[in-house]
Amino acid sequence: MPRPRQKEELKRQYRITIRLEESEYAKIMNESKELGITPSTYLRSKAMRGYVNVPKYAQIDSGHINQLSRLGGLMKKTHNESGGVYQEKTSAILDEIYEILSVIRKRLEDDRKARPLAYCTRLRG
Question: Do 66 and 46 share a structural domain?
């Protein structure tokens, strides 16, 4: 499904091209990636406000959460396919993975409840 069209008054019409050193480019790309936003959003926010408003949940790398979930699924599959041969090891690993995921999810949920409207942090740089 294609992306919905933006209202005409919200479209950005102007473009600025800048030249950067390798270290500057790397810093912008790394910071924007870590924050889960585009480099354009990152630079626009820095230029207009002097800081970047980013939802706190974006600071937790969703890739790590997905990877843990995936590993849990693979361990469960290994456990089931082996007929329980590695039951003690797979069970212990699964317990640890699920415990880590539940702690992460609980912290995110607690954070959302504590600050439902202002659910962001300001990053100055």
Answer: no
